[in-house]
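[step 3/7] fold_predict: job queued, chain A
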Amino acid sequence: MQTRDQIRGHYAHECIDRLERSSKSDPFSYRTIANDFGANILRCGLCSALAFIERKKASKSSDRRSRSNEEAAAELFLDQLAGYFRTLPGLSDQLAGDNLHAAVRTLSVEYYMVLTREALHLALWMRRAAQARITAINCGQESGPASSAPAGEDVHA
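[step 4/7] structure written:
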């Protein structure tokens, strides 16, 4: 039997495995989304954090190639969140459908609070996995930090 944290950690690393197999998603954009997701939840709430990723999914960048890579990374991240949220007891029926953001907006207060708490826990593991496995070299950059946070700092603990 696994703890919830073990399940989240395993799922986060599976998500990075899927990212590595995806040729369309930009690892750097994915890492940025993963790094920001938890802070966005704390700052603005779950609905706003999901809306931010939805906006990235439909970004209006002038460079078509970077736009499509960023869109693909945002879409992959949202699909992975939805996939995890649908495994949670009591929420699988509530989150049926293709649009995660719309489904979250219609949740009762109790379910919204549970999902927000679970999203924060998952966001921590997604950030950890992205920081550990997506480096500047993987992202096609020659130099620069692999993480925006200092080593060993964990703001969500």
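[step 5/7] annotate
Confidence is low (pLDDT under 50) at residues 142-151.
Residues 79 and 100 are 8 Å apart (CA to CA).
exit 0
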